[in-house]
Specification:
Length: 159
């Protein structure tokens, strides 16, 4: 039988997999915050994969401070998924080629426009994995009053 958290996990995961862009927040080597919209792919464990340029502010920030925050939200139906985690460059890993292929499919899925990174030199890009350490699903769409049924923390990893 599904518990409230199991149900929330299923909804949150479906939401994450249905969308393909979100906002990634990082901290620069100097300690400045930065946020940027990214395209991503995700797994059933809330892992996030993205493609970025190695000379970008985002990538330099990830090297300096691998702790990140990532949010996907929709204004039409007030729902949001918030993830905190640790980012790592996995460009040289065994699975990198498959992930890069999946990321390019997302980047090239719009028939009129392409993700900006897909137009640049691929040798200057990196595949980044965000391993989630905290996930919170918020569904404001069907809440009656208060926030008791809005926010659900989703267990991830070895919790």
């Amino acid at each position: 039988m599904d518990t409230d958290i199991d149900h929330a996990r299923k909804e949150a995961l479906a939401f994450l997999l249905r969308h393909k862009s979100g906002v990634l927040a990082t901290v620069s080597p100097e300690g400045n915050v930065h946020a940027s919209t990214i395209y991503y792919i995700a797994t059933d464990d809330f892992n996030i994969y993205l493609l970025t340029l190695i000379d970008s502010r985002k990538y330099q920030a990830l090297l300096a401070h691998p702790q990140v925050a990532f949010t996907v939200s929709t204004p039409e139906v007030p729902q949001t998924l918030q993830i905190e985690g640790v980012a790592m460059d996995i460009s040289l890993s065994d699975e990198a080629a498959k992930i890069k292929e999946e990321l390019f499919a997302v980047l090239n899925s719009n028939p009129w426009f392409y993700g900006p990174v897909s137009k640049l030199d691929p040798s200057m890009s990196a595949i980044v994995w965000i391993r989630p350490t905290w996930v919170r699903w918020a569904d404001y769409a069907f809440a009656e009053d208060g926030d008791a049924h809005i926010f659900k923390e989703i267990p991830v990893g070895n919790q």
